[in-house]
Structures
1.
Amino acid sequence: MTDQALDILKLVLLALLYLFFARVLWAVWSEVRQPSNARGGVDYQPQPAPTPAAGQPTPLPEGRRVTKPAKGRGTTPARLVVLEPKERRGTSFAIGAVVTVGRESDNVIVITDDAYVSSQHARIWPTDGHVLLDDLGSKNGTYLNGARISQQRTVHTGDRIQIGYTVLEAQ
C-alpha cells in the first residue's frame, strides 16, 4: 500500500474512534438525564397542625404565611428540604420527631406514584444531638450522599438523602 492510502486509513480510523466516543457520551448523558414525566408523580400530603399545649402560642390562622422550619445549627440538621423532583423543590419538613418516608398515608413524607418507594421506606429522627437515618427494609434502598445504606447512619447538615426519585437535603 502506498503512504497516501495508509494516511487515509489512519484518518478514517481516527474519525470512527471519535464517533464511537461521541456515541458513548450520548448514551451516558441520555441515561443520566431522564425526563420528569418518566419519574412518576410525587405527592407530599400535609400533616395536620398539632394542637398547642397549655402555655404554648396558638398556630397562625388560615391564610397567613407559614414559614419554613428553622435550619439546624452546626452539623446537626433541623429540617429536610426537597431538591428533586423539580415540581416539589423547596418543600421542607421539620426534624422535630420521627420523620417517616413512604407510600402509605401514615408517613410524614408521603411519596405516591414512585415504583421505587416502599410503603414504609425510611425513618429519620433526632437523638442525643444527632440525626439518624435508617432504611426500613425497603426493596430499592435508601441512599445517603449517593451510597446505599444498610444500617443506621448519622445525617449531617448538607447531606443528601435519596429515596426513589426524591432527593432531600438535610439543613
2.
Amino acid sequence: MSGSVAGLLTSVPPLCFAVFGVTAPRLARRFGPGAVVCAGMAAITAGLLIRPYAGSTAAFLAASALALMGIAVSNVLMPVIVKRWFPDRVGSMTGLYSMALAFGTSVAAAATVPLTDALGGDWQPGLAVWAALAAAAVLPWLPFVRARGGAPAPDGPARTAGRAERAAAEQPALRITRSRTAWALAVFFGLQATAAYITMGWMAQIFRDAGVPAGTAGLLLAVTMVMGVPLAFVIPRVATRLPHQGPIVLVLGVCGLAGYAGLYFAPAGGAWAWALLLGVSNCAFPLALTMVGMRARTGSGVAQLSAFAQSTGYLISIPGPLLVGVLYQHSGGWGVPIALMSALMVPQMLVGVLAGRDRTVEDEAAR
C-alpha cells in the first residue's frame, strides 16, 4: 500500500466506530446489550477470518470494516453494561476491561510478526489466527442472547440502579446536544482517539525509518500498548475518587508531548523511553470511558452519552491518521507529522479538563 492508502486503513476504525457505534443504543433497547455484544463478537470473528484471504486492498478494507462494526457496538455498550451490573464499581470494572483491551492489543503487536514467521513466513495465517480469540470471546456472551441482556439482581446497589432506570424511562428523552460536558467529552474522546490511532498506525514505521529493525519496532509498539495494562486499571480507580479528573488529563498530555518531542529529536536513540511515554499518554482512552460513566446518573443517560461521545469523537478522529500518511508521503519525513501530533495534544488537554468537571449531562440538558 502507498502511504495514503495505509493512512486510509488506519482511518477505517474511527469511521466504523462513528457510523455503527451510534446504532448501539437502539439495538440494545431492542435485543438487550448482552445480545448485541455477542453479535459484535461474531462479526469480529468473521471479519478477522475473511480479510487475510480477501484478495484485494478494497476487500481487505471491507472485511476489516466488518470486524470493526462488531467492535464499534461493543465499545459503546460496555460502559452501559458496567453501569447496569456494577453501579457501585464503575471505576474498578471499567479499569478491568480497559486493562484487558490494552493487554490484548500489546500481545497482538508483539506476537504477530514472530507468529507469522513460525507459520512459515506467510502473513495471511499470521493475521487469520487472531480470529480464534474472537471466536472464543463469543462463548461467554451466548447466555445473554436468550436473556435479552438480563436485569441486575434485585438487591443492594443494583436495586437502586433499577429504580433509577425506571424513573429515567418515565422522563422525556435526554437532549444530549444541550450539554456542554457531553460536547467536551466528545471532543476529548476524538482527540485522544486521533493520537491513539496515529500511534498504533505509524509509530512502528517512524522507528523503522530511523533505522530500528522491524521486529524491534513491533516490540516497541507492544511496549506502548502494554503500558495500558496496569495503568488502564489504576487510572479509572483513581479518577472515580477525584471530584475533578482534569489533573489526570494534564499529566497524560504532558507525557504525550514529551514522547513526541523524543520522536522528533532522537527517535532511535531514546526509542524505549518514547514508547513508554506514549504508552502512558494513550491511557486517556480508559480515562474517557470512566468519565462517560461518571458524567451521567442513569444507565439510559450513560448509553446516550456513550453513543454521542464515541460516535462524535471517532468522526473527529477520522482525518488524523490519513493526514499523517499524506504528510509523510509528500514531505518525505516525519517532522511535519510529528508537529501535527504535538499540536493536537494541546486542545486535547483543554477539553479534557472541561470534561472532567463534576457535573452530569442530565442536569445540563435540563437547563
